[in-house]
């Protein structure tokens, strides 16, 4: 490992600058090209430093720390996972080119170190995918938590006459959602002095007052960190409370400041712009609560203002509902739509107002009437909406033990599918890399034995033969299959099948220049990957002469033909009409989703799929995708 660290340290300048050059030559991804060059260079330098540190310590910790830090930033900047993976590809090419030049006179060492770098970068890619997806799930969960908290506050505002109870709930919710350590709401009395009816988590109850007095006559909002403090008295307050940062927001009522909401952090916490808006909403709700309390003295005026505040809250909730990225649709007990947000109308393909229409008129295959009838919720169900597939949750609305309607929340499956299938593709790539690694370990053992026997000529001959065989296979496939994702999948599957004693053969007449429009790399990986995997399972336990799989890809003028055949046991006649059903499988422990996904991808692009199968002779799947 020491030698590899020395090599990477020697070529790190070439690696970093080479990555930038590769990015500019490639012209993709655009999201990175739009970044300030200095920021991009800094990120690549940090990646190289993390790789060097991980190799030096023989631990993945340095890379894990680096990825964990930047993934949150990437997600907030709206950078796609595919863009991140493309940058890793460009970085990998750059470091390998630099290594090839640095070790051009030592091919044996070059191959060894390239494999070590491959393994580390593959592990990094897998960690990026898993951590990125985890962050995405956390954000979705956080959005729902925030919406739930706002709704609960709205309930308090409309149902409780106890101002202390409402303000306490607002402060407690703010501390919980933003992972703060202390918080207060302070109100101005008739003498324009702050007092704290609600305060929690402080070492000294007077600390929040001392901090809040710095903003009451200044700006609407302040974000104060200890390093920015100028006042010695304020530094003393921060030290006494062990504070790292505080957020202070004024409460306004009819443009008049009536108090402040303050939350404090004793550790580093990042507050996003969305979090900032939510905190301002909490402050607005606190101001509304104070306002309501002032109105309770006059019954008639209180009633009018109560209705007004309810409308304000409903408008705020409606605005939040229209801002979230999930579609929301609710129906009454008779199945007529009484609530729908902007995202739901977009996913359903309706620009006009659908409030008041029956759900089956808008979505004929909706299960909401069934949920109303049975009272049973349904979670994470797939549903077709035109050419889209959505993932939907449906729950009944129950008031006083009576079902008054149902609500559905849903999201375009493609949003989750892209991340999930990229992760599946990476795992498939990792499996193939492991297969190749296993194969090369065997060859290394042979080389080691020859070296110990001092058969150096045989060592050179074996290395040359191994290199030539691998290069011939890769060159043949790349020459016929121009789409990189497809070629990479086939190469990986050949290595994986070879390890299992299966011969995967690409038909010599195969050719593919580009995938048809509407049939993406992800679609090809799903279709071809599942067909080859099924074929490998079909021949896995057969005699050697029958462990053969044939793959044929041909891009014609009208259709792209994909054909995968095996010499397996075939598909029994009673099962041939069921094999595309989700959940149906003859394999032990299988979930039966592979062919269902294949059929879905083929149908989405207007293609056809057929199968020819004979028991004890094998099966051949043929897919035709229109070339547009």
Automatic annotation (TrEMBL):
The keyword Electron transport does not apply. It comes from the Bacteria. SMART domains: HATPase_c (SM00387), PAS (SM00091). Its EC number is 2.7.13.3. InterPro entries: GAF-like_dom_sf, HATPase_C_sf, HATPase_dom, His_kinase_dom, PAS, PAS-like_dom_sf, PAS_fold, Sig_transdc_His_kin-like_C. Coiled coil: none annotated. It catalyses: ATP + protein L-histidine = ADP + protein N-phospho-L-histidine. It holds the Pfam family PAS. GO terms for molecular function: transferase activity. Keywords: Kinase, Phosphoprotein, Transferase, Two-component regulatory system. This is histidine kinase. It comes from Sporomusa acidovorans (strain ATCC 49682 / DSM 3132 / Mol). The lineage of its organism: Bacteria, Bacillati, Bacillota, Negativicutes, Selenomonadales.
């Amino acid at each position: 490992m020491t030698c590899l660290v020395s090599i990477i340290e020697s070529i790190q300048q070439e690696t970093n600058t080479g990555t930038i050059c590769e990015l500019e030559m490639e012209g993709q991804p655009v999201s990175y090209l739009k970044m300030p060059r200095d920021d991009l260079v800094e990120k690549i330098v940090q990646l190289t430093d993390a790789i060097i540190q991980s190799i030096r310590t023989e631990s993945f910790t340095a890379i894990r720390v680096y990825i964990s830090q930047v993934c949150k930033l990437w997600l907030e900047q709206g950078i796609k996972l595919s863009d991140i993976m493309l940058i890793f590809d460009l970085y990998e090419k750059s470091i390998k080119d630099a290594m090839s030049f640095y070790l051009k006179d030592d091919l044996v060492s070059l191959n060894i170190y390239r494999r070590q770098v491959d393994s580390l970068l593959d592990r990094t890619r897998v960690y990026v995918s898993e951590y990125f997806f985890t962050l995405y799930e956390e954000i979705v969960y956080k959005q729902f938590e925030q919406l739930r908290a706002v709704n609960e506050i709205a309930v308090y505002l409309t149902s409780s006459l106890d101002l202390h109870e409402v303000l306490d709930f607002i402060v407690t919710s703010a501390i919980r959602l933003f992972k703060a350590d202390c918080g207060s709401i302070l109100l101005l009395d008739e003498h324009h002095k702050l007092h704290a009816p609600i305060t929690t988590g402080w070492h000294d109850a007077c600390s929040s007052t001392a901090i809040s007095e710095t903003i009451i006559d200044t700006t609407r909002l302040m974000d104060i960190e200890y390093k920015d403090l100028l006042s010695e008295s304020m530094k003393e307050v921060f030290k006494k409370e062990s504070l790292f940062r505080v957020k202070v927001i004024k409460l306004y009522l009819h443009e008049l400041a009536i108090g402040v909401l303050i939350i404090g952090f004793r550790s580093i916490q990042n507050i996003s712009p969305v979090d900032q808006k939510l905190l301002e909403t909490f402050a607005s709700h606190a101001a509304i609560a104070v306002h309501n309390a002032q109105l309770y003295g006059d019954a008639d005026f209180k009633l009018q203002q109560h209705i007004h505040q309810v409308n304000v809250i409903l408008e705020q909730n409606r605005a939040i509902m229209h801002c979230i990225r999930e579609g929301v649709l609710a129906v009454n007990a008779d199945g007529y739509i009484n609530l729908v947000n902007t995202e739901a109308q977009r996913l359903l393909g309706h620009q006009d107002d659908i409030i008041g229409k029956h759900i089956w008129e808008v979505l004929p295959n909706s299960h909401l009437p069934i949920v109303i009838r049975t009272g049973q919720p349904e979670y994470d169900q797939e549903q077709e909406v035109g050419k889209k597939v959505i993932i939907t949750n449906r729950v009944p609305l129950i008031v006083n033990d009576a079902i008054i309607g149902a609500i559905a929340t849903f999201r375009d499956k493609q949003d989750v599918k892209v991340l999930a299938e990229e992760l599946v593709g990476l795992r498939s790539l990792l499996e193939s890399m492991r297969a190749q690694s296993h194969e090369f370990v065997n060859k290394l053992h042979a080389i080691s034995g020859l070296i110990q026997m001092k058969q150096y000529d045989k060592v050179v001959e074996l290395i040359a033969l191994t290199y030539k065989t691998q290069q011939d296979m890769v060159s043949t496939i790349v020459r016929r299959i121009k789409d990189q994702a497809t070629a990479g999948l086939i190469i990986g599957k050949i290595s994986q099948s070879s390890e299992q004693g299966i011969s995967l053969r690409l038909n010599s007449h195969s050719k593919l220049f580009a995938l048809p429009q509407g049939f993406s790399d992800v679609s090809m990986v799903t279709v071809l990957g599942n067909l080859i995997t099924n074929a490998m399972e079909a021949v896995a336990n057969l005699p050697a002469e029958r462990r053969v799989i044939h793959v044929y890809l041909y891009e014609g003028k009208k259709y792209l033909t994909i054909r995968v055949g095996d010499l397996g046991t075939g598909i029994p006649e009673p099962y041939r009409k069921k094999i595309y059903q989700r959940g149906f499988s003859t394999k032990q422990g299988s979930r039966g989703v592979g062919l269902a996904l294949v059929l879905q991808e083929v149908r989405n692009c207007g293609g056809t799929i057929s199968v020819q199968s004979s028991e004890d002779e094998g099966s051949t799947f043929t897919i035709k995708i229109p070339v547009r």
